[in-house]
Inverse folding.
């Protein structure tokens, strides 16, 4: 890929990471991109840099448009290292006249890089910057998903450079939403929201309200990861509105692990009860499903069931891992229950219930424990739990 014009005199100059497979515990099985944008104006301006190993790719793309030393301004929308890892080296090369960042961005830059003489200039929400023919309007977006995050909006192009909001971890040779499968794109966008932004949903709601109040005319959203939204940027904005308000479907995710198949058999019986109620079911065995894909399915599910046998007076490590990860993301407005087999103690259900209580999941049944191998009567109890959860999911 080379530099690519996305608007008149606005170019993508970022990098494609085809091989990354893990991003802080998030499975990036299709890689990601680190998007950086160069505006060619009276003041040539670079918006964000890239992860440190991709510095030369960024420089190669910039060199296709201009000598990097001719860049006047740097805008740091986000200081996380996948967007600022090569910032010190780029500053040494560019020697920019000014580096713009949010108030919290300045603190993050100081804490990360300890600069002595960088020409930092702090901008706040409502501040503007003239580049010549184009103007940049800044909007702080604290905790989306770091304290320093901000948007840069160019009204002349109706372009929102949105930092880590509205992105996806997906490496492609295509740059725009209308060049790929919309269904796959939205799947990646949902996974990104579920695993990175779900915890900040109240902040997302406030931001979307603020953007609506500002009446910004947006016909393109350029995030720092993944595809650029040009066909219908309102689609991802509407999706964020739904996800941040925890809108869900009549759907239940059954997450389980099993030692000798007893807990798996219980999961199957529960699913049959759910299906009897006409509820959509996703069965997700922790041995073959990554935590981040499970969380993506939970994003729009009304119900969730957790199943684990008891091991050493606790639950299986895979379930503890998932519940710890999910608890940090703070899902809301869901119903749930736990189940599992045991040999001589049976504490797993109690521990899973404890996690659900901490997350605020509405536990609609104390849970089912089965000693060793389920009997016909146990299967009926599991089926009945599926009926009960299905009915709760269908309640308005």
């Amino acid at each position: 890929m080379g530099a690519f014009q996305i608007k008149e005199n606005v170019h993508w100059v970022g990098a494609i990471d085809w091989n990354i497979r893990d991003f802080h515990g998030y499975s990036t099985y299709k890689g990601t991109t680190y998007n950086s944008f160069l505006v060619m104006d009276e003041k040539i301006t670079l918006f964000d840099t890239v992860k440190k190993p991709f510095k030369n790719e960024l420089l190669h793309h910039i060199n296709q448009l201009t000598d990097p030393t001719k860049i006047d301004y740097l805008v740091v929308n986000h200081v996380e290292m996948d967007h600022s890892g090569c910032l010190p080296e780029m500053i040494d090369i560019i020697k920019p006249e000014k580096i713009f960042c949010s108030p919290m961005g300045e603190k993050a830059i100081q804490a990360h890089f300890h600069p002595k003489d960088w020409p930092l200039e702090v901008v706040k929400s409502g501040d503007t910057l003239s580049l010549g023919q184009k103007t940049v309007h800044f909007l702080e977006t604290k905790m989306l998903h770091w304290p320093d995050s901000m948007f840069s909006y160019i009204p002349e192009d109706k372009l929102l450079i949105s930092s880590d909001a509205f992105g996806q971890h997906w490496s492609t040779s295509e740059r725009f939403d209308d060049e790929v499968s919309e269904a796959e794109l939205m799947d990646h966008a949902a996974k990104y929201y579920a695993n990175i932004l779900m915890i900040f949903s109240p902040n997302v709601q406030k931001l979307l309200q603020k953007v609506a109040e500002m009446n910004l005319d947006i016909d393109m959203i350029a995030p720092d990861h993944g595809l650029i939204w040009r066909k219908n940027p309102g689609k991802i904005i509407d999706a964020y509105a739904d996800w941040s308000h925890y809108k869900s479907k009549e759907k239940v995710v059954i997450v389980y692990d099993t030692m000798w198949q007893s807990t798996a058999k219980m999961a199957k019986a529960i699913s049959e009860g759910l299906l009897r109620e006409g509820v959509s079911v996703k069965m997700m065995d922790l041995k073959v499903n990554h935590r981040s894909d499970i969380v993506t399915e939970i994003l729009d599910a009304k119900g969730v069931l957790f199943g684990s046998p008891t091991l050493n007076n606790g639950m299986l490590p895979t379930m503890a891992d998932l519940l710890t990860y999910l608890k940090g993301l703070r899902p809301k407005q869901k119903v749930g229950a736990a189940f599992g087999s045991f040999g001589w103690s049976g504490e797993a259900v109690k521990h899973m219930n404890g996690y659900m209580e901490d997350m605020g999941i509405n536990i609609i049944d104390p849970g089912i424990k089965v000693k060793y191998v389920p009997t016909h009567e146990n299967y009926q109890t599991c089926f009945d739990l599926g009926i009960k959860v299905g009915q709760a999911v269908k309640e308005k």
Q: What stands out?
A: The first strand starts at residue 4 and ends at 7. Residues 376-394 form the longest helix (19 residues). The chain has a mean pLDDT of 96. The CA atoms of residues 262 and 289 lie 19 Å apart.
